[in-house]
Design goal:
427 residues, alpha/beta, 21 strands
Length: 427
């Protein structure tokens, strides 16, 4: 089992020992941020927090203020270019990424080396090995993605094709010619590749040599993931991260959720109350990076809602909890008639009916009651009337909310950029 782990000591450390390991680093990181970042110093002072006075996990999660993307963007706008959050000298930086916002994500040499190692650990956890040939299909420009991911696969020892975003046909031709074994892709792009392969007359499972896909981004219903696996004849493994807190979690060969990396403290909070949810329940991921120096991320609110954390032991031997999939973004999971509606659950119901296509949930409040309308693309000449009744019943069973209206529209008429949830109650 010599090559089962990237960092065996840390990945299999007993929970209590890991908790002490993290606590030690957390105290150092809080002190470091307070000393070196004018932003954190003033944020902590405004909250009446002194790092040395934080002596328990509970104090940390109740007293230390959260950080949001908007705060980072505003800080950089008011104090250009890198903001007061920057905790190193600008001349120490070796990498600057530019995210929409705009938001600069910057790295010192040590930060960069450690994030590449972190990504390599994530991919190794997913099952990537030195003999693999990997095609990286995310963008290499501006954002933290392609460059780090490319280096991480090479750190494992893989041969990497810097495919980049778009150009589906080219990807398929190159993967066939090189007998690529691992695909790194956003879930939606992997789906797109499957469709284009069929258009090109390929049987992706037979003509390609892919054995594994590492997928990220918006994960859709489990049935769609299985469909993708069937199309290509590969296994999918999921990773999770954000620009501010990259490569937080990666799914192991057991396929039962994404192991959190020990480098991060991960909290799951009720997005409205800002309180921890009961263990295992769904809520917003709030993440602290214990390592990064240039731009410390302390209690960073990701805006992503996870289905929850799973703390039972995993057969792979890694001891960190596993994260279940992301359900959506805060604000995109509407609370309708008192219940959260998870679009992925609606998708699961709609996916049972091959005659249905893309859908949109529209929530409004014409008078005093919430109204839920489900707009769905209908393929060909299916019997809309009987489908409507079936759908209302199946949705009620799954999401516990009764849809007030089911509106069928012709296939291909829902704009691709239309949000899955349109909440009209806020305007
Ligand atoms: Zn595992």
């Amino acid at each position: 089992m010599a090559e089962a782990y990237w960092d065996a000591r840390l990945e299999t450390m007993p929970r209590e020992e890991l908790s002490r390991w993290q606590w030690e680093r957390l105290r150092q990181q809080l002190a470091y941020a307070y000393e070196n970042s004018a932003y954190y110093r003033s944020a902590f002072e405004a909250a009446g927090v002194r790092p040395e006075a934080i002596t328990s996990w509970e104090e940390f999660t109740t007293a230390v203020p959260c950080l949001t993307k908007l705060q980072i963007i505003e800080d950089q706008r008011e104090h250009p270019p890198f903001g007061r959050l920057l905790a190193v000298k600008p001349q120490e930086l070796i990498r600057i990424y530019w995210s929409p916002g705009p938001e600069l994500i910057v790295f010192t040499p040590e930060d960069y080396a450690s994030v590449v190692d972190l990504a390599a650990k994530a991919f190794f956890t997913c099952g990537v090995r030195p003999e693999d040939i990997v095609n990286v299909t995310c963008t290499y420009h501006w954002v933290i993605a392609g460059t780090v991911i490319d280096e991480a696969f090479r750190a494992i020892g893989c041969a990497v094709i810097p495919g980049g975003a778009g150009q589906s046909r080219m990807h398929l031709e190159v993967m066939r010619a090189t007998q690529t074994t691992v695909l790194f892709a956003f879930f939606t792009f992997a789906e797109e590749l499957g469709k284009v392969a069929v258009e090109m007359g390929f049987d992706p499972a037979r003509d390609l040599s892919l054995r594994l896909a590492i997928v990220t981004g918006e994960l859709r219903a489990r049935t769609l993931r299985q469909e993708l696996e069937r199309t290509f004849g590969f296994q999918t493994r999921e990773i999770y991260g954000a620009s501010e807190v990259p490569f937080v979690a990666a799914e192991c060969s057991e396929g039962g959720g994404m192991h959190l990396d020990p480098r991060f403290i991960v909290e799951v909070l009720d997005p409205h109350m800002q309180q921890p949810v009961p263990e295992g329940e769904s809520g917003e991921l709030v993440i602290t990076d214990l390592v990064k120096r240039a731009q410390p991320s302390i209690r960073y609110r990701t805006g992503d809602i996870t289905e929850g954390l799973e703390s039972t032991p995993c057969p792979c031997g890694r001891t960190t909890p596993r994260m279940r999939p992301i359900l959506g973004r805060v604000g995109q999971i509407p609370r309708v008639k008192g219940l959260f509606i998870v679009p992925r659950e609606v998708e699961e119901v709609i996916g049972r009916h091959p005659e249905l296509g893309r859908f949109q949930l529209i929530v409004d409040r014409p008078e005093i009651r919430d109204r839920l309308t489900v707009k769905i693309e209908l393929k060909g000449a299916a019997d809309a009337l009987s489908l409507r009744e079936v759908l209302i019943r199946e949705l009620k069973e799954k999401i516990r909310v009764t849809a007030d209206e089911i509106v069928f529209v012709p296939e291909g008429t829902l704009p691709v950029e239309a949000p899955i949830v349109e909440d009209l109650r806020r305007v």
